Amino acid sequence: MNGFPEGWFYIKSQTNNHVLEPHCLSVNSGARIVTSKQRFGFDADSQLWKYDNGYIVNKASGKVLDIEKGYIRTFHRTHLCQWDRKPLTEASNQQWTFLPGGFISPTAHKGYVIHLHGHFYRSKHDICQILLHQIKDEDGRKQTWYFEPEQSQPKILSPPIPKEYPEYFINSIKNHY
Q1: Domain limits at 99?
Q2: Half-sphere exposure of 83 (CA within 13 A, CB side)
Q3: Which of 26, 52, 80, 164 is the most buried (most CB within 10 A)?
Q4: What is the CATH number of the domain that holds 92?
Q5: Residue 82 placed within a domain
């Protein structure tokens, strides 16, 4: 299946293990794609993706990974965003392939790959911009990715009740749950 796993998965940077997600957890078309620290459980849907007939689909929004404005800008930054799925005949900016070495590339532009932008290791922020960039021979680590399958949802456990509370208080809490 073109190198992508089946089912929902995280797309993780081989540089810092952060994962792709829409900025600010947005479910809107046009939201730029960034990386941030991986989350698990019910809070992870915005970071989960699946491969579907060339499209990379976000679990939270149902939108697909897209080249912002629909084309590669050679003299300006080309950002990635999420957008409504276009018909296959109009979706060259939404079709993706996984190349040997861990690169994710637009199917129509295999000289370009998803690129982690900036000096994230110097940044005080947990997020990093994602761009489409030409494949680099040097420092290609900012351009390589791997997949991690979705984790099963953790059980929600009630916290233990401290013993220093009076017995009647503990019983009232136990009866409440």
Answers
A1: 9-176
A2: 19
A3: 80
A4: 2.80.10.50
A5: yes
**Cα(106)–Cα(24) distance, integer angstroms:** 24
Which residue is it, tokens 């000289």? Answer: 111
The answer to whether 43 and 2 have CB atoms below 8 angstroms apart is no
Q: Kindly report, residue by residue over 39-94, the tens digit of the pLDDT.
A: 998 889 999 999 999 999 999 999 999 999 999 987 789 999 999 999 999 999 99
110 CB-near residues (< 8 Å, 6+ apart): 97, 99
CA neighbours closer than 13 Å in the CB half-sphere of residue 17: 3
pTM of the model: 0.81
Look at the chain and report how many structural domains it folds into: 1
Q: Are 17 and 144 in contact (CB under 8 A)?
A: no
- Tokens representing 59 are 């679990």
CB 143 within 8 Å of CB 133: yes
What integer pLDDT is reported at residue 158 of this predicted model? Answer: 47
1 assigned to some structural domain: no
Residues facing 52 on adjacent strands = 55
Distance (Å, rounded) from C-alpha 123 to C-alpha 5?
Answer: 31
Q: Is residue 169 part of a domain?
A: yes
Residue 141 DSSP SS3? helix
